[in-house]
Here is the input.
Amino acid sequence: MSQVEATAETPFWERGNLAPVHEEVTAFDLPVEGAIPPELNGLYARNGANPREGHSGHWFIGDGMLHGVSLKNGRAEWYRNRWVRTPRFNGAPRRPGVPDIRSSVANTNVIAHAGKIMALVENALPMTMTRELDTVGFQDYGGKLDTPFTAHPKICPDTGELHFFGYGFVPPFLTYHAVDASGELMRSIPVPTRASTMMHDFAMTSGHIVFMDLPVVFDMPAAQRGTMPFAWSDSYGARLGILKRGAGIESLRWVEVEPCYVFHVANAFEEADGTIVIDVAWYKELWRGGPSATSFDKALLKRWRIPPGATRAQEQQLDDRSIEFPRVNDDRAGLRHDIVYAVDSGQGSLASDQASSLRKYDLKTGKSAEHVFRNGVSSEFVHIQPEGAGGEDDGWLIGFVYDRARNASDLLILDAQNIESKPVARIGLPARVPQGFHGNWMPGV
Ligand SMILES: [Fe+2]
Here is the structure.
């Protein structure tokens, strides 16, 4: 697990705990400090960029690697990390600037839906995986899906439906899709937009789907360089496209927002009068001059409110401290939430390798609480709702933390109601889990 010595030229994604690991590890019966709640039976898996060759042109384009821990009856049964065996990982040539939904690095998220575990990246089809993190193959819904698949699909807790979109560089730039609870692709609707913009996430409420058409616009010179093909535009403007769930494209309306960039939506819901509320990690600007920028500005927790008939969203900054990787209790997806969990991205940014605390916002009381990882660097944490429980913050938070002293990582389980407290369980892993992107708890998997 040695790390290559960084030089002045080493990009941030090859330094410290952002640097890739070089081995696939399997370890059984992991050491535990504290006690794993015995009702936690399932798999926690998380994805991230881990370039096979050790280098990549941007943090976001390294080969996907999953890290998973299986929990069973109070034991940490195993840890595995596995590259996703995409055609590109297996040596298929790259064709910069040529869209190909079967050429991907599958590095951004991993979800379970309709009995399938899928590794996701926003420019390609999902890759299905086994629970042991072996690659099965592409998921194209019986040949029906012919667009990319966002890394941030939403599962509706009421219907079990999977809502997602694909965006690309050729018209139609954006297509919305919905899959039913059994895994059948029900509907695909092209959504007219003015250009291809980087659309990393979207929002879902009980009645609507909201797309974010923000001014980080497709940039052909960057595409031909083989890096993230987007750059900030001062002229494009920023707007949200609101589509009624279950209706056709005639229901689409656009509302303006202040120019900004948002990678991540925490959650969205509708108030009794139909006002749509969306909580996001908000960047004032992103990638002016292209994605070669060496860091990110800080993101803030912000709320957009869109009353019925409004042509412009109301905007409210909810805190002045930096956040990223916002999550809510997934049982509240599309429904009213009061609690947001997010990683504090520190003084600089996600790129600084300094994210060192997890914050819990109670938006009803305006209070927040923090778990500070004194000797470690945290990644995204995910909420786990106990079976049958009703409180929004009942249950646990789970995520990887890099322990600098050990040069290895731990999987931590925190009490979601008392996040400042000592972890409920600290599961020691035999290897380093590099700072990555997103994961999920998959109960019963
Ligand atoms: Fe993301």
